[in-house]
Amino acid sequence: MRSDLEKLKDEFLDAVKDVSDSLKLEELRVEYLGRKGKLSNIMKQLPEIAEGARKEMGQFANEIKTSIESSFSAAEQSLREREAHGKSENEWIDITAPGQAPEIGHMHLTSQAIEEVDELFSRLGFVRVRHPEVEWDWYAFESLNMPKTHPARDEWETFFMADGDKVLEGKKGKVVLTPHTSNGQAREMERGRIPIRMININKCYRRQSDVTHAPMFHQFEGLMIDEKVTIAELRGVLDFFAQNFFGPERKTRLRPHHFRFTEPSFEIDITCEVCGGVGKIEEIKCRMCKEGWLELGGAGMVHPNVIKAGGLDPEKYSGFAFGWGVERTMMMKSGLNIDDIRILYRNDLRFLKQF
Ligand code: DAH
């Protein structure tokens, strides 16, 4: 038994030398010192030893055990040091090296314009709302004083919601994708919170797709309703917007026009940035504009029929409305001259990243 124990110790010392990771070391510990390990196997011989020599043999076995244990701890310690050292080698970083900045995205240029429009009108107390994009015919057309025969109401201009071949219809008429943000007018009046200063910015849909039209686009619709609102207020609001959005030197004009939902109605023009509103540059006709003016969008004094449709008394209340395309307004500001407006919504990052 004595020689078995000595052999065991030598064997262990030999094996522990080659261990290079803590998992193997643990395996070795179990193999030699574990409950069913080699040492306890040898210890099974102890009862067979003659009584006189047994105690001495027991002591010797203990010494061997202690010796194996201490070389095990030594190996464990040096392994731990080696591993810690290796870790700091492997995970070393140069904190003085220039960093890799993460790529930072940004809002789509239409969203940027919407934020700016929203911010400017909020300074005048206009509250941004979003009235539905999927809408009843009543709000999109009927309440806006548009006759049943109006061309916008046939299927060549407007998207109708359908279940198979059947156009969806409910208590307020057919269901359409709003072709303009004017649907917000009657909806806002129905809420009955007077005075109204609303800016409804939303997606609009029309059956059109060419270089100057996308089937989905955006409009912002302003509506102000109160007692005794006049064209003077309309002008004030439009000038405020034009000068803050486009620049302090820009001027607006109202040009008579016709819309079913306003009376009188106007097209709003703004002085051209290129020729400064003159229409000519050194006797040569400006190529950007028509005689110094660019067309921004429609506006007018809300028609009494529309006020009535919104549930208010047109004898008591008056107001103005305007509705412009976000994309068009934004492109006029940036001077962005793109040959196909649909590129805005093709998700081509090479284009979008530029803004
Ligand atoms: N809804 C009109 C369109 O999409 C634009 C418009 C014109 C809105 C005059 C208005 C307005 O509020 O007063 O073409």
**Anisotropy-based shape:** elongated
List the ions, cofactors and other small molecules found in this model: 3,4-dihydroxyphenylalanine
What is the structural class?
A: alpha+beta
**Fraction of residues in helices?**
25-40%
Which series of helices and strands comes N to C?
HHHHHEEHEEEEHEEHEEEEEHEHH
Unreliable segments (pLDDT under 50, ≥5 consecutive)? none
Beta content comes to 15-25%
Main beta-sheet annotation: 7 strands, mixed
Q: Care to count the β-strands?
A: 14
Number of domains: 2
CATH topology of the largest domain: BirA Bifunctional Protein, domain 2
Please identify which CATH superfamily of the largest domain we are dealing with.
Bira Bifunctional Protein, Domain 2
Number of helices: 11
CATH architecture label name of the largest domain: 2-Layer Sandwich
In spatial order, strands of the major sheet run 1-7-8-14-13-10-9
Distance separating the two termini: 86 Å
Instruction: Indicate the radius of gyration in whole angstroms.
Output: 42 Å
**For the residues shown, what is the average pLDDT?**
92
CATH class (first level) name of the largest domain: Alpha Beta
